[in-house]
Every structure is written in C-alpha cells, then in structure tokens.
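A note from the maintainers: we've had questions about how concatenated examples are separated. There is no special marker in the raw files; a new sequence line simply starts the next protein. For clarity in this README we add a label.
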Amino acid sequence: MAENTDGAVNGAAQPQGGAQLNLQRVYIKDASFEAPNAPHIFQQQGQPNIELNLSQRVNQLGDDVFEVVLGATVTCKVEDKTAYLAEVQQAGIFGLSGFDEGAREAILSTYCPNTLFPYARQVVSDLVQNGGFPPFLLQPINFDALYAEQLRRRAEGANQPNQGLNA
C-alpha cells in the first residue's frame, strides 16, 4: 500500500502550517431588558421610534485567543416615552494563528462580529417579544463596510497636520 504524503486524512485535506481561525465558544456576556413605562405604554398610541447603537471590543485572552464582544442596544420610544430598552453583549472566543497583524485586525473587526450578529439578533428579538412587545428583528449589518469606513477615517486622521494650540 502506498504511503499518503499529501496531508490528507480519510480523504480530507488538512492545513499544513497555514493560518487558522476557529470559533471556540459563543455566549451571552450580558443581557437586560427594561420597560420603564409599562403598563401604561401598552395603551399609548403613536409611531414607535427605534434607535440602535452597536459597539465592539476585543480582549486578548492568550497568544492566539481573542474574546470579541458585540454590544447591541435597542431603544424604542413612543412620542417622548421610552417603551423599552434592550441591551445585549454577545461574545465569542476565537482562535487565530498564522495571520499577520493587519489580517488579524480585519478578521476581528469583520468576520467575528458577522459571526456573533445572528446570535445577538435572536437575543434582542426574544427579549422584546418576551417583554410583551411586537416582534423586532435587527436588520443585517455590513461589518465590512463599517471596518472600511474606520480604516478610511484612521487614514484621514494620520494625514491631518497636528492642529495644536499656538501660543
């Protein structure tokens, strides 16, 4: 029998010293729901106004292990009264090895939040519906475009002359 030297095991190709990315765990780091004007808000007539705030932070846990936390805060107001406030911090632990610094930053800023977003979306939806309000689904977010905008702003900031105070 011939010896297999191409790195295949049971017909599946195995990476040989290349970059690797793996999702180790997905979890809810924090979640909260408030309906400060209930039960009166349920009888309020008017068009709801919904505001979404997203945040992201990355914590390095080890040499090639990172925690990415995607924060989503949804505030719904009817006229000037808050109907509800739903906050979720959806987190994941990602292993990244063999990537240069630029590629690692791009993955942590785009791929990782894209992976976490459906989980955060579901938690927000469940909180809102369990709070007695009509179902609400967050619209898809283009994290690639947000990262490109962040890079553009960073480049613009680097090209700006120092605008210090003149004495």
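[label: protein 2]
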Amino acid sequence: MSAPTRLSADEVNAALRDLNGWSLENGKLHRQFQFPSFIEAFGFMSSLALVAEAMGHHPEWFNVYNRVTIDLTTHDAGGITQKDLELAQRANQLAR
C-alpha cells in the first residue's frame, strides 16, 4: 500500500476555507473544540476514535476538562493529505 499524496500549500489553503474552525499551525491542521463538560468532550473523543480507527488514520490530540485540541498530519506523506481533511470534516460533524 502506498503512502497518501501530500497536498500542496494552495490545496490546503483552499480546503481550509471549507473547514470551519480549522487553521494551519506548525504544518498541521489545527483546531480546538470546547464542550459543556468533560463527559461531552470525552464522548466526542470516543466517537472520533472509532472513525479514526476505521480510516486507519489517527489524530494527535490533547484533552483538558472540556477542551479537545487536535492536530492532523499524515506522517507517511510528510504533510497534510486528503485523509487529514476527511478526518477534520468528520470531527466537525461529530462536534455539532
């Protein structure tokens, strides 16, 4: 199986226009989600973990109480790929 193709800076910037709340930070897609409680933040993480596992693509993330910070990159490709964009979109859907 070959590594996913790294997106160009122009492709990433164009995609960011459609990814509400996401930005580019240190070469990774970045977003912080905030929830009403720890339980809701943890539930979000659990749901997204199932999606990530099914995709075979796992986030770098950090949780403190009601906040979940996510950074996405595809290490095999050395940057952001379509997989990162898809996982970011799914995170946004789950956070609603």
